[in-house]
């Protein structure tokens, strides 16, 4: 491992190299951080007026050489993004096939290979890609804009549903999209979908006749750790399990542990999240254990109000008790 000094005019530690988690950085800073991982370094404070070499070098940046030092970390980062997609093999195959059938995207790929024509000669649909043509490229057969998958028209509604499934709101949903997917006008369509989703009808539920007949469940994050909360509609008693990984298989395993103590409920209510409502593993679990799984209205968390209340109770217990088990007692 190569070792060197980083000279800076800041007296405080540099969060980029010390306290910041890799997942919290922007894609550009992630690529920079990944390039630095192979080095060992120490950060030294130097007054700004004495940083003459750094000032001179910043005015003469290195040119990017195709296939060279600067391109390899970028490809590694894109592959890392692709590897983190839930159900990636099935979803990426679906996106790839849809891209192949989309005439507009096929034309864009052809322009990337053969060169872009004069702007005045392009159709209106292709003009939407003109302003980002320098950011487009093909990686592993998939058309991408930087590190974001370009979604064909036939899959826009499906991807919008997935983006809104976690009911983050307009701002956070847009931030999520900026790191994962793109198509012309995606920001406006996210806002329109969010506005429409807030006007769903209120559906009243019948009170169960016995304990554990009907339960609600939801996932929540507390101090950078994901937890599963399950609460009964009859007793209002919550169960809480900390998850070692946020995957559908881990959620199913945790549910089996709870069901082993209380029995199999008749009805389970959850949102449309990717680890429960939209997970193939949870659908198989539902059939195997023989209960009915009901999902809340898409992008409307209030319709899963019992689980939302359970999340508030669980967070309050975690905040006020070092031992959550004692808090539940």
In short:
The chain is of the alpha/beta class and 329 residues long. It contains 13 helices and eleven strands. The strands form three sheets. The chain has a five-stranded mixed sheet with strand order 9-8-7-10-11, with helices on both faces.
Which percent range describes the beta-strand content? 15-25%
The quaternary state of the protein chains shown equals single chain
- Output the strand order for the largest sheet: 9-8-7-10-11
The biggest sheet, with number of strands, parallel, antiparallel or mixed sense and barrel status, is: 5 strands, mixed
Low-confidence stretches: 64-69
- Which structural class do the helices and strands define? alpha/beta
Give the proportion of residues in helices.
Answer: 40-55%
Average pLDDT metric: 79
Radius of gyration, rounded? 25 Å
Along the chain, the helix and strand elements come as EHEHHHHHEEEHHEHEEEHEHEHH
Number of strands: 11
Helix segment tally = 13
Q: Give the distance, in angstroms, between the N- and C-terminal Cα atoms.
A: 52 Å
Globally, the shape reads: globular
